[in-house]
Amino acid sequence: MLTSAAYARTHAARFLEELKALLRIPSVSTLPEHKGDVRKAAEWLAAELKRIGMENVRLVETAGHPLVYADWLHAEGRPTALCYGHYDVQPPDPLEEWISPPFVPTERNGNLYARGAVDDKGQMYMHLKALESLFAAHQGRLPVNVRVILEGEEEVGGESIAKFIREHPEQLKADFALVSDTEMFAPELPTLCVGLRGMIYTEIEARGAKTDLHSGMYGGAAPNPFVALAQIIAQLKDKDGRILIPGFYDRVKAPDAEELKAWKRLPFDEEHYRKTEIGSLQLTGESGYSVLERTWARPTLDVHGMPGGFTGAGAKTVIPAKATAKISMRLVPEMTPQEAFSQYKRYVESLTPAGIELDVRLIHAGDPIVVGTENPYIQAATRALKQVWGTEAVFVRSGGSIPVVGDFERHLKVPTVMMGFGLPDDNLHAPNEKFHLANFYRGIESIITFFEELAK
Amino acid sequence: MLTSAAYARTHAARFLEELKALLRIPSVSTLPEHKGDVRKAAEWLAAELKRIGMENVRLVETAGHPLVYADWLHAEGRPTALCYGHYDVQPPDPLEEWISPPFVPTERNGNLYARGAVDDKGQMYMHLKALESLFAAHQGRLPVNVRVILEGEEEVGGESIAKFIREHPEQLKADFALVSDTEMFAPELPTLCVGLRGMIYTEIEARGAKTDLHSGMYGGAAPNPFVALAQIIAQLKDKDGRILIPGFYDRVKAPDAEELKAWKRLPFDEEHYRKTEIGSLQLTGESGYSVLERTWARPTLDVHGMPGGFTGAGAKTVIPAKATAKISMRLVPEMTPQEAFSQYKRYVESLTPAGIELDVRLIHAGDPIVVGTENPYIQAATRALKQVWGTEAVFVRSGGSIPVVGDFERHLKVPTVMMGFGLPDDNLHAPNEKFHLANFYRGIESIITFFEELAK
After folding, report:
1. Is A270 a catalytic site residue?
2. 3-state SS of chain A?
3. Do A217 and B400 touch (CB under 8 A)?
4. B115: helix, coil or strand?
5. Active-site entry in B132, B154, B426, B452
6. Please, which residues 364-393 of chain B have a Cβ atom closer than 8 Å to chain A?
């Protein structure tokens, strides 16, 4: 009988072909015309979960796209893992920038190119293939208890899974969650993500005149909502990127000395990052903090768009009746979205320019997360990664937000192991998304080893 | 034999039916699907000019929509008028707000409702009907020499007529121009417009990262073009609306004491204007200047739109690679567009935030205009208006720009008499555009009387 890892290696070629079949389903959750494809991907995954030996496999219908649930709970006395992944993908636009078509998975230079290759179909599929290998090597059993929950709305806000977790926490009872939707800090450097920023996503609507006005006739008497928004935004951050909202930094908890020391040891070349990842003349942000601190452990504020008025080519001389700014803030421990939004709203309203009425709205919020590194699941993950990669795993944070991790913490009271195998240049949400094939295979082995470690 | 005015009165009903026929042609110059309709309106007008007795009637082909030219030059020793008008109209959107359809001219409450009713088909048609009445009363002759030039691109920038004036000034040789595309200051108050603001319409493009970035991953390190634009815009005007561009006010020439005194006598109720025309909480603009000064005789700066980034519903956490601000400034005598733009560009560039590259572009420019009130044409117009309306005409300025008036001044070296009969609530460029019918008829009589005055 093969070991689980040997089984995975023996069947690697088939695993890859199966993943390609999944990637061929254009399960773009935001586009109504792909609704059927999203369901097809869910059904495909449910069938595969059944085939490998998972039990109670079912589609959970929601107001949006279905969830896929499965479990195997016969490892008495052993911990229970909750494996999470998402089978929906971002739209593939702009199509013309893809070297091979987004839904025709193509191997090139040791990578698999396709929309969803790494985010998250490829990474989610590692879980399934690890489970298949474990079943095969353990006489149809698993070394730990496992629940699987897959969603089809991660790219559109994840409302259905949030509702399901909130309303049915008992159906997802587990000791920890496993999420493979993050990346490695660098190639060959096994990485556990132990912190995520939270966020509040807001809109400020500024209204001036009752109707659009001609700037020739009324310029000099009518308030201009865009000028008002610009005046407000200019007072939200100073030139060094420090947020000026009173009280905003009061609860910010700096990473401890050990975590900061570990970040300093990470292979990070600021000039390379500026040139290849950002591509701007210079980096910006608060002085006195490293790039990793600024993007992982400091709150930030960004403007995403300013709809309203005239945005076509050429000249139209309108003073728009209203304009909107889409503004989000990233939050770090121990900030809370509720408090941050109320500080922000109060401050913005205090800046209201003459003649303008403001409406400050919260669109979306998520808590910041820090997972302690001392829990047994992170410890087991660390040991497993060391075995498979031959290198000590690093602990990083991510500047982004994965709201479901906050839901796991809040409603299931479990920590999440964020063990991801993407690479920084995998082109998430962009043309030519890829997954490095060696990482797909080693990811499967890492998860196998992690689960076997937990059974020791 | 009837006098010209009596002829006009006798044929008023027919004049109106003819205007309705013209208004039924949807000559929307900006919409390619109406290209044929724009030409149809030009041909309709050419036929009418021929019918009433004008000579050398022709369509002048251009890169865009045709010009319509006609003349009658047999009044030896008498001045030559250049009658200008435009037969193109604004798009009618939003259609659902029209009480009667925009291209079904409808009489209601003494008004004629239709797109183009006042801007400018109805006002232009007054010229033609005045000429017809004069021909009828003067044995097939006119009391002055007349050239007519009509354009079909006023609502889209007027490039073709500008080119024609520049290249063929001898074909439009005249002593003065007559433009009826302005409004009366108040009902029953005959008005001559003797000043227009100029303008520069610009774009500032701000570029940060080489590509759109995720604000979670990169917020805190990547420059944000919208924040950069907001910081710049906030430094263009202070909170009182005073423009902060160095040197911008250096050439501003205040209206003389007499003009200012005359403006103070105009029937203007600031609170009524705020409520009914603007509809904002309060009026804005430079303190120490009246609303009329601020909108007629002071430079202003407005932001019209800020394309870029994410403008859809909901949340997308993008730090856009670039964003643009569409910004225009209104200019007053003796400012020049060239100097104003170079002051603006230099100042904006000096404000460039860290990590940002700017491109400051001029899209469109027009000179400010002031017509002296002492020239014989304005004087004759004043006498004519007094005769027809029984009230002394007022001299006003307009905050808007009519570029063709600058072209007449620059290339033909002639002053323009801006004698318009629109009303402030005529809904130009908006749903339910109208022309007060009494003004249509009295406008025709005013023009008849003006031309007869000039022959005295």
Report:
1. no
2. CCCHHHHHHHCHHHHHHHHHHHHCCCCECCCHHHHHHHHHHHHHHHHHHHHHCCEEEEEECCCCCCEEEEEECCCCCCCEEEEEEECCECCCCCHHHCCCCCCCCEEECCEEECCCCCCCHHHHHHHHHHHHHHHHHCCCCCCCEEEEEEECCHHHCCHHHHHHHHHCHHHHCCCEEEECCCECCECCECEEEEEECEEEEEEEEEECCCCCEEHHHHCCCCCCHHHHHHHHHHCCECCCCCECCCCCCCCCCCCCHHHHHHHHHCCCCHHHHHHHHHCCCCCCCCCCCCHHHHHHCCCEEEEEEECECCCCCCCCCEECCEEEEEEEEEECCCCCHHHHHHHHHHHHHHCCCCCCEEEEEEEEEECCEECCCCCHHHHHHHHHHHHHHCCCCEEEEECCCCHHHHHHHHHHCCCEEEECCECCCCCCCCCCCEEEHHHHHHHHHHHHHHHHHHCC
3. yes
4. coil
5. B154
6. 364
Residues of chain B with pLDDT under 70: 1
B281 part of a folded domain: no
- Strand, helix or coil for residue B435: strand
Q: Does residue A398 share a domain with residue A360?
A: no
Nearest to B233 among A230, A315, A316 (CB): A230
Query: Residue A96 belongs to a domain with what CATH number?
Result: 3.40.630.10
- Claim to verify: residue A379 and residue A359 sit in the same structural domain: no
Domain assignment of residue B118, given as a range:
4-194+368-454
Q: Does A315 touch chain B (CB under 8 A)?
A: yes
Looking at the complex, report in whole angstroms how far the Cα of residue B328 sits from the nearest Cα belonging to chain A.
8
Report the residue from A222, A229, A295 with minimal CB separation from B284.
A222
**Judgement on whether residues B161 and B245 belong to the same structural domain of the protein:** no
Residue of B nearest to A402 (CA): B216
First to last CA, chain B: 20
What is the pLDDT, as a whole number, of residue A76?
96
- List, for residues A102-154, the tens digit of each pLDDT value: 999 999 999 999 999 999 999 999 999 999 999 999 999 999 999 999 999 99
How far apart CA A27 and CA A156 sit, in angstroms, is 12
Using CA atoms, how far apart are residues A72 and A147, in angstroms rounded to an integer?
A: 6
CB-CB under 8 Å, B230 with A234 = yes
Q: Which residues of chain B lie closer than 8 angstroms to A398, CB-CB?
A: 216-217
Q: How far apart are CA A204 and CA A363, in angstroms?
A: 10
Q: Are A68 and A112 contained in the same domain?
A: yes
Q: What Rg value do the Cα atoms of chain A yield, rounded? A: 24
Q: Which residue of chain A comes nearest to B183, CA vs CA?
A: A217
Contact B270, B283 (CB under 8 A): yes
What pLDDT is recorded for position B430?
A: 85
A271 interfaces chain B, CB cutoff of 8 Å: no
A169 contacts chain B (CB < 8 A): no
Of the listed ranges A73-77, A227-231, B88-92, B250-254, the least confidently predicted one is B88-92
Please indicate, yes or no, whether residues A70 and A177 belong to a single structural domain of this protein. Answer: yes
- CATH number (domain holding residue A207): 3.30.70.360
Question: A220, A230, A234, A215: which is closest to A323 by C-alpha?
Answer: A230
Report CB contact under 8 Å: A157, B226: no
Inform me whether the C-beta atom of residue B249 falls under 8 Å from chain A C-beta atoms: no
**Claim to verify: residue A203 and residue A350 sit in the same structural domain:** yes
Q: Report how far apart the first and last C-alpha atoms of chain A are (Å, whole number).
A: 20
- Check whether residue B182 and residue B226 sit in a common domain: no
Structurally, chain B folds into a number of domains equal to 2
- Please say if A425 is a catalytic residue: no
pLDDT 10s digits, A288-327: 999 999 999 999 999 999 999 999 888 788 899 999 999 9
End position of a domain, from candidates A320, A335, A365: A365
Does residue B100 belong to the interface with chain A, where contact is any CB pair within 8 Å?
Answer: no
